[in-house]
Amino acid sequence: MKILVVNPNISQDVTDLIEKEAKRAANADTEILMDTAPFGVEYIETRMESVIAGYATACVAAEHYGEFDGMVVAAFGDPGLMGMKELLDVPVVGMTEAALASACLLGQRFSIIAISDRITAWYRETVERSHLSTRLASIRSLKDPLRNVGTVQEDYSDRLIELAQEAVHTDGADVIILAGAPLAGLARNLEGKLPVPVVDGVSSAVKHCESLVALKPGIAAESSFAKPPLKPNKGLPEKLAAILNRTC
User: Fold this and answer.
1) Distant-in-sequence, close-in-space partners of 75: CB < 8 Å, separation ≥ 6
2) How many Cβ atoms sit within 10 Å of the Cβ of residue 85?
């Protein structure tokens, strides 16, 4: 089994964190193919940045078309996820939808711990898209500017733990979701430090993707996730255009 894991932002440090956690989570016979967005922003906080990241992710997926059995969109907020599900004939899993699915199996109410205050509106809308708002206890976030997106875990470890504890004791969270690729792998380090289960988005996405590939559920030939209809297009990367034009 080969799973393509795409970092939709341009930070190689974050890609390295994602890759380490993805490989730790994957089965021994699963090959992780890792790639990074060729353009965009260092880390995604806003709706506009998500639009850019979604297109970058589509370009990366097209470059690897035919090389993988499943794909993970490795940014919390799942930029471009719904479009990827339309574009590809393999299971595509987002960090957010995977983390939410895991959290719902572990408790009734979950809280999301985020690395930026600006990011919380987009995260809340992502939860709403999954129709899980009634199970969202809270979104708590760091308030300080980030020194380096690749060192958030080291720079703010204590504060992240405090935010998670506040979510449990004040907001009534049964499960904590550590949001954002820069926090990939942190859940392993917090084992035993919090009184409720902790969910990592990268590992959840890899495991759910493996399960979907193994289940062989088939592809959407009709309904809303069928491939986009054939129509004239212009200015798209060659490989992305080829998928849309059904020439590959």
Assistant:
1) 7, 8, 9, 44, 53, 95, 180, 181
2) 19
Q: How many beta carbons lie within 10 A of that of residue 75, not counting itself? A: 32
Measured between alpha carbons, how far is 199 from 187 in angstroms, rounded to an integer? 6
Range of the domain at 128: 97-200
Burial 185-206 (b: 16+ CB within 10 A, else e): bbbeebeeebebbbbbbbbbbb
Q: List pLDDT tens digits, range 96-140.
A: 999 999 999 999 999 999 999 999 999 999 999 999 999 999 999
Rounded to 10 degrees, the C-alpha dihedral 248/18/105/195 comes to -170
Question: Is 190 within 8 Å of 199 (Cβ atoms)?
Answer: no
| Predicted confidence (pLDDT) per residue in 99-110, tens digit | 999 999 999 999
**What's the maximum distance between 2 C-alpha atoms anywhere in the chain?**
56
90, 211: one domain: yes
Model's pTM, two decimal places?
0.94
Note whether 31 and 81 are same-domain residues.
yes
Give backbone dihedrals phi and psi of 184, rounded to 5 degrees, phi first. -55, 130
Looking at residue 104, which CATH number applies to its domain? 3.40.50.12500
State the total domains in the chain: 2
- Rounded to whole angstroms, how far apart are CA atoms 122 and 78? 10
